[in-house]
Amino acid sequence: MSKRKIKVLSLSDKLKIVNAFESGKFRNEIQREFNLPESTYYKIIKSKDSIKSACSDGHGNIKRIRVSEFPNIEKCLLEWIKQTRDKNIPIDGPLLKKKSKEFATKLGIENFSASNGWLEGFKRRHDITFKKAAGESKSVNQAWYRGEKKSMKFAVPRIWREPTDHIHDCYFCVVNPSKRRAGKNAKKIEYPNLPSTSAPVPHSENFPVPSNPKQKAQGQLPLSQISSNSGDSEFVITSPSVEPHLINSEEFDDLVRDLNLPKLKAEILGSRLKQWNLLKNDVIISDQRKRHKTFSGFFTKKTDFVIAMM
């Protein structure tokens, strides 16, 4: 006698069975359609609410519902993870275990040990992976600024063409990348090819590792003395200004290229900047130069009168 082949149903398959049941189909029809034994059918119908909930959370492809032994702790931990990642703070396993113990203490749960097995199960249940957050370079360099022994494994900073603050997206570098971890499993540092920047170069005698500004704060020289003592002929001291910067033709072309604007949108941008007096007088915007041709067909001139045709 041949054994019955056991079919493992995913949650999405079970949801189809639940929907068929709720639509009014008879049990025999559903069992025949999905090739279900009677015991499995009743088990699925009994768990229909939890199946719906799991599928609505995007877990329709898994085979079984993973139930947490400590749901209240995990609920608090998930909310903390969301808030922490919104602040661009990196998260790892030891930090999660530490926070989970804190929540267990606050909730009065005594039999929680935050074991490695629980941590792996928690990550599987909620699809959590430890990836570097987009702003991790920012947080690490803030720590370096405070004097902590943290640094990013990059060379000297990327040079940006736009005169703006790029603290959230540029590559800060305070160590020689040659001293980083080596081996076949080491991650390779790759700099993106961005047309609006100049790529960084490794530290050398000409580009030393920068000293922490906190360590120099007490003996800081006045601005005028720094300018006069600088041995770099290309070093220019710039002071902040509240005066508006008038964009010239070259800067406007760079802006259009960096924003990848088509001709029409570039002309609209130029006309707005011109209207707000943010362009130099010699900057020519093509739509303004040819605008009269677009509307010339709507006007006729007779002696001293101009007539508009609607």
Explain what this protein looks like in three dimensions.
With 310 residues, the protein is mainly α. Among the domains are: 11-57, Arc Repressor Mutant, subunit A; 71-126, Homeodomain-like (Arc Repressor Mutant, subunit A, Orthogonal Bundle); 161-179 and 191-199, no CATH class; 249-300, no CATH class. 43% of the residues lie in helices and 4% in strands. It is built from 14 helices and four strands. It has helices at 11-22, 27-34, 38-46, 48-56, 71-86, 93-107, 116-125, 136-145, 213-216, 223-229, 249-258, 263-275, 286-289, 291-295; strands at 159-160, 197-198, 299-302, 305-308. The strands form two sheets. It has a two-stranded antiparallel sheet with strand order 1-2. A two-stranded antiparallel sheet has the order 3-4. β3 (299-302) and β4 (305-308) form a beta hairpin. The longest helix has 16 residues, at 71-86. It is flat and about 95 Å long. The protein starts with 10 loop residues before the first helix and ends with a strand. Pfam families: CENP-B_N (PF04218), HTH_Tnp_Tc5 (PF03221). Residues 212-231 have a biased composition (Polar residues).
